[in-house]
Amino acid sequence: METKYRCNCPFTSALDVLGDKWMLVIIKQMLLENKETFKDFTESDEAIATNILSSKLKQLEEYGLVTKSKLPNNKKSIYYHLTDKALDLTPVILELGIWSDKHLREAHPTIVDDDGMQLLRTDKAEFGRVIEGKYREKLAAIMAISH
Fold it and tell me: Would residue 39 count as lying in a domain?
């Protein structure tokens, strides 16, 4: 897949890759919600259509943001994992959450307001370390099983 970039601007170029409404949602689901199989994604609250999900997972893989594998004890299911390149988007995802909490809560009062959001509000860096650390631990355990 060859990406067509609109211009030389780094912000616009990033949006050419990530600006589709599903790309960051899928990354967020993997990072924060432990989604890792096609079935996991289809059962999520976001209700992404299967044809769109297939297309977006393929694009994420082609961009080097996601890898896929099969585990030795389950050859049927394909597992999707974030790469370091995708994990570098953690601060972006956190900033979107902070912005939403600050600016959308009045119009959308049912936005989650749990201990995680409280930590994000009070210590964004710690929240980022916690979620990325948990993800890396899970990934290390998966890689240990598959080798």
Answer: yes
Domain count for the chain, please give it.
1
Instruction: Say if CB 30 and CB 80 are below 8 A apart.
Output: yes
Q: b/e string for 85-109 if b means 16 or more Cβ within 10 A?
A: ebbebbeebbeebeeeeeeeeeeee
Which structural domain, as residue segments, surrounds residue 115?
10-146
- CATH code: domain of residue 142: 1.10.10.10
Residues 91-144: tens digit of each pLDDT: 999 999 999 999 998 999 999 999 999 999 999 999 999 999 999 998 888 777
Full-model pTM:
0.89
